[in-house]
Amino acid sequence: MSANPSATTDLRLRGRAMSAPERSLSYGIDLAGNEKRKSGICLFDERKQAVTYLLTSDSEIVEDVKRRRPALVAIDAPLSLPAGRRTLEDRTGPHLRACDRELLRMKIRLFPVTLGPMRSLTKRGISLKNLLEDEGFRVIEVYPGAAQDLLGIPRKRAGRGRLIEGLRSLGIGGIRSGATDDELDAVTAAYVGLLFLSGEAIGLGDPAEGLMYVPATC
User: Fold this and answer.
1) Per the domain annotation, does 216 fall within a domain?
2) Tens place of pLDDT for every residue, the chain, 218 residues?
């Protein structure tokens, strides 16, 4: 597949003049750790109709967001460093943020932002957040795995079909049976974005450090 959305998906979007993407409220990104891998993208309108596809580079994502003009961008990636840590390479700083510690208290597992591959994901997440905010977009951090646990639906490790069923049970439409794992996590990210916009999401952590938003079920 090319770096842009598939030809089929692109034609489908162009063929619906007032489609969900053109009136999107929430734009979800399941961000890959580097620009060589594809990131899942999901657009939602107020009817919870999802359109998903894949993008690769930060520039592609930023240009797509600028074209769609969503009310909110929800990114599945750490968007801040632990307070007291100057850089990811700082071995003396803390490894967990306040939001990470809250998730652990809720018995939800996670990887610290300083652990191996999470470093590149965190760097990319912070950079993309800054790029989007410079363009005037509101950006929040989400964690699809935590959201799926709190909503009582399976994670992708339980099987793609079961996750699709779980997402559809939330009233989400438009999910393709052939959607990738990355697209499905982007659907979850965008759904948390909708909950945020309707006042049904809560922020975990310290606002001065950076909040992670989850469904307000806890």
Assistant:
1) no
2) 333 333 323 323 322 333 434 457 999 999 999 999 999 999 998 788 999 999 999 999 999 999 999 999 999 999 999 988 878 777 777 889 999 999 999 999 888 888 888 899 999 999 999 999 999 999 999 999 999 999 999 998 889 999 999 999 999 999 999 999 999 999 999 999 999 999 999 999 999 999 999 999 75
Domain span holding position 108 = 7-211
Degrees to nearest 5, angle at CA 100 with 132 and 45: 40
Cα separations in angstroms, 26 against 19, 121, 141: 14, 21, 13
For the chain, the straight-line distance linking the first and the last C-alpha, in angstroms and rounded, comes to 40
| Lookup: tokens for 55 | 């993008």
Q: Which two tokens stand for residue 144?
A: 């699809």
CA–CA separation, 173 and 85 (whole Å): 41
How many domains does the chain divide into?
1
State the CATH number of the domain containing residue 122. Answer: 3.30.420.10
The answer to whether residue 1 sits within a structural domain is: no
* 218 is a domain residue: no
